[in-house]
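Chain A, query sequence.
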Amino acid sequence: MKKLLLPLCTLLILPCFLFGQDSPAALFENPLANSDVAAFDQLKDHFHKYVNEGILAGTAILVHQGTAQKQDFYGFQNLEKQIPVSENTIFRLASMTKPITSVAIMMLVEQGKIDLDDPIEKYIPAFESIQVYLSGTERISPASRPTIRQLLSHTGGLSSGYDASPAGQFCAKTVAEKKPKDLEELVETLAGIPLAFQPGTDWAYSYSTDVLAYVVEQVSGKTIDVFFQEYIFDPLNMPNTRFQVPADKIDNFAALYSINPEGKLQVLDSPEESPYTDGTYFPRGNGGLTSTLADYYRFTKMLLQNGVLDGVRILKEETIALMTQNMLTEDILPISVGGQPLPGWGFGLGFGVMLPETGIGSSGDYFWPGGAFTYFFVNPKEERIGIFMTQLSDKSKMNILFEFHKLAGAVFFQGQH
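Chain A, predicted structure.
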Protein backbone atom coordinates (compact mmCIF):
# COMPACT_ATOMS: atom_id res chain seq x y z
CA MET A 1 0.00 0.00 0.00
CA LYS A 2 1.24 3.48 -0.79
CA LYS A 3 2.20 5.29 2.39
CA LEU A 4 -0.38 7.87 3.38
CA LEU A 5 0.70 11.39 4.26
CA LEU A 6 -2.36 13.21 5.49
CA PRO A 7 -2.21 16.99 5.04
CA LEU A 8 -1.49 19.11 8.09
CA CYS A 9 -4.99 20.57 8.03
CA THR A 10 -6.57 17.18 8.73
CA LEU A 11 -5.38 17.46 12.32
CA LEU A 12 -7.13 20.81 12.68
CA ILE A 13 -10.57 19.68 11.68
CA LEU A 14 -13.71 20.64 13.49
CA PRO A 15 -15.81 18.96 10.89
CA CYS A 16 -19.31 20.28 11.12
CA PHE A 17 -19.64 22.41 8.06
CA LEU A 18 -20.82 19.97 5.48
CA PHE A 19 -24.19 19.33 7.00
CA GLY A 20 -25.98 19.03 3.68
CA GLN A 21 -29.36 20.71 3.46
CA ASP A 22 -30.43 20.37 7.08
CA SER A 23 -29.09 21.99 10.21
CA PRO A 24 -28.26 19.60 13.06
CA ALA A 25 -31.38 20.66 14.96
CA ALA A 26 -33.62 19.80 12.02
CA LEU A 27 -32.64 16.14 12.17
CA PHE A 28 -34.75 15.46 15.22
CA GLU A 29 -38.46 16.04 14.95
CA ASN A 30 -39.84 13.36 17.26
CA PRO A 31 -39.43 13.00 21.03
CA LEU A 32 -37.37 10.04 22.21
CA ALA A 33 -38.55 7.31 24.55
CA ASN A 34 -38.17 8.14 28.24
CA SER A 35 -37.47 4.55 29.27
CA ASP A 36 -33.82 3.88 30.10
CA VAL A 37 -33.72 0.64 28.14
CA ALA A 38 -35.69 1.98 25.20
CA ALA A 39 -33.53 5.10 24.87
CA PHE A 40 -30.24 3.22 25.08
CA ASP A 41 -31.51 0.57 22.68
CA GLN A 42 -32.58 3.29 20.28
CA LEU A 43 -29.11 4.81 20.55
CA LYS A 44 -27.40 1.48 19.85
CA ASP A 45 -29.77 0.46 17.07
CA HIS A 46 -29.33 3.80 15.33
CA PHE A 47 -25.57 3.37 15.03
CA HIS A 48 -25.63 -0.39 14.49
CA LYS A 49 -27.69 0.36 11.40
CA TYR A 50 -24.94 2.62 10.05
CA VAL A 51 -22.47 -0.24 10.50
CA ASN A 52 -24.82 -2.83 8.99
CA GLU A 53 -25.37 -0.60 5.97
CA GLY A 54 -21.63 -0.17 5.42
CA ILE A 55 -21.61 3.54 6.21
CA LEU A 56 -19.37 3.04 9.25
CA ALA A 57 -16.91 0.21 9.91
CA GLY A 58 -17.57 0.02 13.65
CA THR A 59 -18.48 2.14 16.66
CA ALA A 60 -17.62 2.57 20.32
CA ILE A 61 -20.19 4.35 22.49
CA LEU A 62 -20.27 5.38 26.14
CA VAL A 63 -23.05 7.13 28.03
CA HIS A 64 -22.62 8.10 31.69
CA GLN A 65 -24.91 9.66 34.27
CA GLY A 66 -24.19 10.00 37.95
CA THR A 67 -22.62 6.74 39.08
CA ALA A 68 -23.95 4.67 36.17
CA GLN A 69 -22.60 4.15 32.68
CA LYS A 70 -23.37 2.05 29.62
CA GLN A 71 -21.03 1.07 26.79
CA ASP A 72 -21.48 -0.51 23.39
CA PHE A 73 -18.88 -1.83 20.94
CA TYR A 74 -20.08 -2.89 17.49
CA GLY A 75 -18.58 -3.69 14.11
CA PHE A 76 -14.91 -3.68 13.17
CA GLN A 77 -11.88 -1.49 13.81
CA ASN A 78 -10.35 -3.14 10.74
CA LEU A 79 -12.72 -4.54 8.14
CA GLU A 80 -10.00 -6.14 6.04
CA LYS A 81 -8.63 -8.13 8.97
CA GLN A 82 -12.04 -8.57 10.62
CA ILE A 83 -10.76 -7.18 13.94
CA PRO A 84 -13.78 -6.14 16.04
CA VAL A 85 -14.05 -2.84 17.85
CA SER A 86 -13.32 -3.36 21.54
CA GLU A 87 -12.41 -1.50 24.70
CA ASN A 88 -8.78 -1.70 23.51
CA THR A 89 -9.38 -0.04 20.13
CA ILE A 90 -7.28 3.09 19.61
CA PHE A 91 -8.84 5.96 17.63
CA ARG A 92 -7.50 9.14 16.05
CA LEU A 93 -8.82 12.03 18.16
CA ALA A 94 -8.05 14.86 15.70
CA SER A 95 -9.59 18.02 17.20
CA MET A 96 -10.58 16.28 20.43
CA THR A 97 -6.92 16.99 21.23
CA LYS A 98 -7.80 20.68 21.67
CA PRO A 99 -9.58 20.39 25.05
CA ILE A 100 -6.53 18.59 26.44
CA THR A 101 -4.24 21.39 25.27
CA SER A 102 -6.62 23.92 26.80
CA VAL A 103 -6.48 22.10 30.14
CA ALA A 104 -2.67 22.22 29.96
CA ILE A 105 -2.73 26.01 29.49
CA MET A 106 -5.14 26.48 32.39
CA MET A 107 -2.92 24.39 34.66
CA LEU A 108 -0.15 26.94 34.04
CA VAL A 109 -2.62 29.79 34.61
CA GLU A 110 -3.50 28.31 38.00
CA GLN A 111 0.19 28.09 38.85
CA GLY A 112 0.59 31.80 38.14
CA LYS A 113 2.97 31.20 35.26
CA ILE A 114 0.55 32.58 32.67
CA ASP A 115 -2.14 35.25 32.83
CA LEU A 116 -5.15 34.84 30.57
CA ASP A 117 -4.84 38.44 29.41
CA ASP A 118 -1.14 38.23 28.61
CA PRO A 119 -0.37 39.02 24.96
CA ILE A 120 0.94 36.07 23.00
CA GLU A 121 4.10 37.99 22.15
CA LYS A 122 5.13 37.81 25.82
CA TYR A 123 5.86 34.13 25.25
CA ILE A 124 6.46 34.11 21.49
CA PRO A 125 8.30 37.30 20.43
CA ALA A 126 7.69 36.55 16.73
CA PHE A 127 4.10 37.77 17.25
CA GLU A 128 5.31 41.29 18.07
CA SER A 129 5.16 42.21 14.38
CA ILE A 130 1.79 40.62 13.64
CA GLN A 131 -0.49 42.56 11.27
CA VAL A 132 -4.18 42.37 10.37
CA TYR A 133 -5.30 41.33 6.89
CA LEU A 134 -7.21 44.06 5.06
CA SER A 135 -7.24 42.98 1.42
CA GLY A 136 -4.83 41.51 -1.08
CA THR A 137 -1.41 42.69 0.08
CA GLU A 138 -2.80 45.48 2.29
CA ARG A 139 -2.22 45.11 6.05
CA ILE A 140 -2.90 47.29 9.08
CA SER A 141 -1.65 47.25 12.66
CA PRO A 142 -3.82 45.51 15.26
CA ALA A 143 -5.79 47.79 17.58
CA SER A 144 -4.82 45.45 20.45
CA ARG A 145 -2.62 42.42 20.88
CA PRO A 146 -4.06 38.88 20.72
CA THR A 147 -4.11 37.30 24.19
CA ILE A 148 -4.05 33.84 25.73
CA ARG A 149 -7.75 34.18 26.57
CA GLN A 150 -8.59 35.06 22.98
CA LEU A 151 -6.64 32.13 21.58
CA LEU A 152 -8.50 29.77 23.92
CA SER A 153 -11.80 31.14 22.61
CA HIS A 154 -10.64 31.46 18.96
CA THR A 155 -11.27 35.22 18.98
CA GLY A 156 -7.65 36.37 18.66
CA GLY A 157 -7.72 36.80 14.90
CA LEU A 158 -5.74 33.70 13.98
CA SER A 159 -7.36 31.68 11.25
CA SER A 160 -7.17 28.53 9.13
CA GLY A 161 -8.61 26.99 6.00
CA TYR A 162 -11.91 26.55 7.85
CA ASP A 163 -12.33 30.31 7.73
CA ALA A 164 -13.95 31.02 4.36
CA SER A 165 -12.70 34.62 4.30
CA PRO A 166 -9.82 35.69 2.02
CA ALA A 167 -7.64 35.95 5.14
CA GLY A 168 -8.46 32.40 6.14
CA GLN A 169 -7.70 31.06 2.70
CA PHE A 170 -4.42 33.01 2.63
CA CYS A 171 -3.53 31.40 5.95
CA ALA A 172 -4.27 27.90 4.66
CA LYS A 173 -2.26 28.49 1.47
CA THR A 174 0.72 29.81 3.38
CA VAL A 175 0.85 26.89 5.84
CA ALA A 176 0.51 24.40 2.99
CA GLU A 177 3.39 26.03 1.12
CA LYS A 178 5.68 26.21 4.16
CA LYS A 179 5.11 22.54 5.14
CA PRO A 180 6.29 22.95 8.75
CA LYS A 181 8.07 19.89 10.10
CA ASP A 182 7.50 20.53 13.80
CA LEU A 183 5.51 22.70 16.19
CA GLU A 184 8.14 25.44 16.32
CA GLU A 185 8.18 25.80 12.53
CA LEU A 186 4.37 25.82 12.44
CA VAL A 187 4.16 28.61 15.03
CA GLU A 188 6.89 30.62 13.28
CA THR A 189 4.84 30.34 10.09
CA LEU A 190 1.65 31.45 11.85
CA ALA A 191 3.41 34.46 13.37
CA GLY A 192 4.15 35.68 9.85
CA ILE A 193 0.55 35.37 8.64
CA PRO A 194 -1.75 38.38 9.13
CA LEU A 195 -4.69 38.08 11.51
CA ALA A 196 -8.09 37.62 9.86
CA PHE A 197 -9.69 40.34 12.02
CA GLN A 198 -8.95 42.68 14.89
CA PRO A 199 -8.44 40.68 18.10
CA GLY A 200 -11.61 40.19 20.13
CA THR A 201 -14.00 41.32 17.39
CA ASP A 202 -14.91 38.02 15.71
CA TRP A 203 -14.49 34.23 15.85
CA ALA A 204 -12.63 31.90 13.50
CA TYR A 205 -11.84 28.22 13.89
CA SER A 206 -8.09 28.47 13.84
CA TYR A 207 -4.58 27.28 14.56
CA SER A 208 -4.82 29.03 17.94
CA THR A 209 -4.51 25.83 19.95
CA ASP A 210 -1.23 25.00 18.22
CA VAL A 211 0.12 28.36 19.36
CA LEU A 212 -1.12 27.61 22.88
CA ALA A 213 0.74 24.29 22.84
CA TYR A 214 3.91 26.17 21.99
CA VAL A 215 3.24 28.58 24.86
CA VAL A 216 3.03 25.54 27.16
CA GLU A 217 6.43 24.43 25.88
CA GLN A 218 8.01 27.86 26.38
CA VAL A 219 6.66 28.29 29.89
CA SER A 220 7.15 24.74 31.19
CA GLY A 221 10.39 23.90 29.44
CA LYS A 222 8.85 20.61 28.32
CA THR A 223 7.64 19.53 24.90
CA ILE A 224 3.86 19.33 24.65
CA ASP A 225 3.84 15.52 24.49
CA VAL A 226 5.96 15.25 27.63
CA PHE A 227 3.82 17.84 29.45
CA PHE A 228 0.66 15.93 28.57
CA GLN A 229 2.18 12.66 29.73
CA GLU A 230 3.55 13.92 33.04
CA TYR A 231 0.77 16.25 34.12
CA ILE A 232 -2.41 14.88 32.52
CA PHE A 233 -2.16 11.32 31.15
CA ASP A 234 -0.14 9.72 33.96
CA PRO A 235 -2.10 11.38 36.81
CA LEU A 236 -5.42 10.44 35.16
CA ASN A 237 -4.27 6.91 34.32
CA MET A 238 -4.69 7.30 30.55
CA PRO A 239 -2.10 4.75 29.35
CA ASN A 240 -3.29 4.56 25.73
CA THR A 241 -3.35 8.26 24.85
CA ARG A 242 -0.34 9.35 22.77
CA PHE A 243 0.65 11.21 19.63
CA GLN A 244 2.24 8.04 18.22
CA VAL A 245 0.80 4.55 18.60
CA PRO A 246 3.62 2.32 19.91
CA ALA A 247 4.62 -0.76 17.95
CA ASP A 248 3.22 -3.16 20.54
CA LYS A 249 -0.24 -1.57 20.24
CA ILE A 250 -0.58 -1.25 16.46
CA ASP A 251 -2.89 -4.27 16.44
CA ASN A 252 -5.32 -2.16 18.51
CA PHE A 253 -5.13 0.84 16.17
CA ALA A 254 -8.24 1.29 14.02
CA ALA A 255 -8.04 1.83 10.28
CA LEU A 256 -9.31 5.17 8.97
CA TYR A 257 -11.82 4.81 6.15
CA SER A 258 -12.92 6.95 3.23
CA ILE A 259 -15.66 6.32 0.65
CA ASN A 260 -14.73 5.05 -2.81
CA PRO A 261 -16.56 6.10 -6.03
CA GLU A 262 -18.93 3.14 -5.61
CA GLY A 263 -19.96 4.40 -2.17
CA LYS A 264 -18.11 1.65 -0.29
CA LEU A 265 -15.69 1.98 2.61
CA GLN A 266 -12.02 1.86 1.68
CA VAL A 267 -8.89 2.23 3.80
CA LEU A 268 -7.47 5.74 3.81
CA ASP A 269 -4.94 5.28 6.61
CA SER A 270 -3.71 1.80 7.43
CA PRO A 271 -2.45 1.19 10.99
CA GLU A 272 0.75 -0.39 9.68
CA GLU A 273 1.57 2.49 7.30
CA SER A 274 0.33 5.55 9.12
CA PRO A 275 1.82 8.91 10.11
CA TYR A 276 0.46 8.03 13.56
CA THR A 277 2.82 5.07 13.78
CA ASP A 278 5.89 6.06 11.75
CA GLY A 279 6.74 9.35 13.49
CA THR A 280 5.61 11.59 10.61
CA TYR A 281 3.14 13.58 12.70
CA PHE A 282 4.69 15.87 15.26
CA PRO A 283 3.16 16.64 18.68
CA ARG A 284 1.00 19.76 18.61
CA GLY A 285 -2.05 21.36 20.18
CA ASN A 286 -4.77 21.32 17.53
CA GLY A 287 -4.80 17.61 16.86
CA GLY A 288 -2.77 14.46 16.52
CA LEU A 289 -3.53 12.48 19.66
CA THR A 290 -4.78 8.90 19.59
CA SER A 291 -6.77 7.35 22.43
CA THR A 292 -9.28 4.74 23.56
CA LEU A 293 -12.86 5.19 24.68
CA ALA A 294 -11.83 4.34 28.26
CA ASP A 295 -8.97 6.85 28.35
CA TYR A 296 -11.04 9.73 27.01
CA TYR A 297 -13.81 8.81 29.43
CA ARG A 298 -11.37 9.37 32.28
CA PHE A 299 -10.49 12.79 30.89
CA THR A 300 -14.15 13.81 30.53
CA LYS A 301 -15.01 12.40 33.95
CA MET A 302 -12.32 14.63 35.45
CA LEU A 303 -14.00 17.58 33.72
CA LEU A 304 -17.47 16.56 34.96
CA GLN A 305 -16.16 16.20 38.51
CA ASN A 306 -14.89 19.76 38.46
CA GLY A 307 -11.24 19.00 37.84
CA VAL A 308 -10.64 15.93 40.03
CA LEU A 309 -10.61 12.17 39.39
CA ASP A 310 -9.83 9.39 41.87
CA GLY A 311 -8.49 11.91 44.34
CA VAL A 312 -6.14 13.52 41.80
CA ARG A 313 -6.86 17.19 41.11
CA ILE A 314 -5.92 18.51 37.67
CA LEU A 315 -7.76 21.86 37.81
CA LYS A 316 -9.76 23.84 40.34
CA GLU A 317 -13.56 23.79 40.23
CA GLU A 318 -13.73 27.48 39.38
CA THR A 319 -11.33 26.95 36.47
CA ILE A 320 -13.55 24.27 34.93
CA ALA A 321 -16.56 26.57 35.38
CA LEU A 322 -14.74 29.38 33.59
CA MET A 323 -13.59 27.20 30.71
CA THR A 324 -17.04 25.77 30.04
CA GLN A 325 -19.11 28.95 29.90
CA ASN A 326 -19.77 30.77 26.65
CA MET A 327 -17.33 33.64 26.09
CA LEU A 328 -18.78 34.96 22.85
CA THR A 329 -20.81 38.16 22.74
CA GLU A 330 -24.04 38.55 20.78
CA ASP A 331 -22.31 40.61 18.08
CA ILE A 332 -20.02 37.64 17.30
CA LEU A 333 -22.76 35.00 17.26
CA PRO A 334 -23.66 32.91 15.39
CA ILE A 335 -20.25 31.49 14.68
CA SER A 336 -19.58 29.82 11.35
CA VAL A 337 -17.03 27.40 9.99
CA GLY A 338 -16.27 27.08 6.31
CA GLY A 339 -19.06 29.58 5.66
CA GLN A 340 -21.63 27.36 7.45
CA PRO A 341 -23.45 29.22 10.28
CA LEU A 342 -23.79 27.24 13.51
CA PRO A 343 -26.73 28.74 15.45
CA GLY A 344 -26.94 27.63 19.05
CA TRP A 345 -23.17 27.19 19.37
CA GLY A 346 -21.11 29.31 21.71
CA PHE A 347 -17.50 28.84 22.72
CA GLY A 348 -15.69 28.87 26.04
CA LEU A 349 -12.00 28.48 26.78
CA GLY A 350 -11.25 25.38 24.75
CA PHE A 351 -14.77 23.92 24.42
CA GLY A 352 -17.85 24.45 22.34
CA VAL A 353 -20.83 25.39 24.54
CA MET A 354 -24.48 24.79 23.65
CA LEU A 355 -26.65 27.90 23.96
CA PRO A 356 -30.36 28.00 24.92
CA GLU A 357 -31.46 27.94 21.28
CA THR A 358 -29.57 24.76 20.46
CA GLY A 359 -31.56 21.87 19.03
CA ILE A 360 -28.84 19.27 19.55
CA GLY A 361 -28.33 18.77 23.28
CA SER A 362 -29.07 20.84 26.36
CA SER A 363 -28.13 24.44 27.04
CA GLY A 364 -24.84 24.41 28.92
CA ASP A 365 -23.55 21.17 27.42
CA TYR A 366 -19.90 21.53 26.49
CA PHE A 367 -18.51 19.41 23.68
CA TRP A 368 -16.20 19.00 20.73
CA PRO A 369 -15.91 16.76 17.66
CA GLY A 370 -12.86 15.32 15.94
CA GLY A 371 -12.33 15.18 12.20
CA ALA A 372 -11.93 11.39 12.07
CA PHE A 373 -15.45 11.04 13.52
CA THR A 374 -15.06 11.16 17.27
CA TYR A 375 -17.22 13.23 19.61
CA PHE A 376 -17.83 13.96 23.26
CA PHE A 377 -20.16 16.08 25.35
CA VAL A 378 -20.54 16.78 29.05
CA ASN A 379 -23.80 17.90 30.64
CA PRO A 380 -22.81 19.24 34.08
CA LYS A 381 -26.39 19.84 35.26
CA GLU A 382 -27.52 16.26 34.75
CA GLU A 383 -24.05 14.79 35.38
CA ARG A 384 -23.97 13.21 31.93
CA ILE A 385 -21.13 12.27 29.60
CA GLY A 386 -21.46 10.97 26.05
CA ILE A 387 -18.55 9.72 23.93
CA PHE A 388 -18.73 8.36 20.39
CA MET A 389 -15.83 6.96 18.37
CA THR A 390 -15.51 5.61 14.85
CA GLN A 391 -13.02 6.35 12.03
CA LEU A 392 -14.25 7.95 8.81
CA SER A 393 -13.05 10.82 6.63
CA ASP A 394 -16.29 11.55 4.72
CA LYS A 395 -17.22 15.00 6.02
CA SER A 396 -20.59 14.89 4.26
CA LYS A 397 -21.74 12.53 7.01
CA MET A 398 -20.70 14.63 10.00
CA ASN A 399 -24.33 14.92 11.10
CA ILE A 400 -23.82 11.45 12.54
CA LEU A 401 -21.93 13.01 15.45
CA PHE A 402 -24.76 15.35 16.31
CA GLU A 403 -27.27 12.54 16.03
CA PHE A 404 -25.22 10.88 18.75
CA HIS A 405 -25.42 13.96 20.99
CA LYS A 406 -29.18 14.12 20.64
CA LEU A 407 -29.80 10.41 21.21
CA ALA A 408 -27.23 10.00 23.98
CA GLY A 409 -28.59 13.03 25.79
CA ALA A 410 -31.94 11.25 26.08
CA VAL A 411 -30.54 8.19 27.85
CA PHE A 412 -31.33 8.21 31.58
CA PHE A 413 -30.49 5.67 34.25
CA GLN A 414 -32.75 4.42 37.02
CA GLY A 415 -32.17 6.42 40.18
CA GLN A 416 -30.20 9.07 38.32
CA HIS A 417 -33.02 11.25 36.96
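DSSP finds ten helices and 18 strands in the chain. The longest helix spans residues 36-52.
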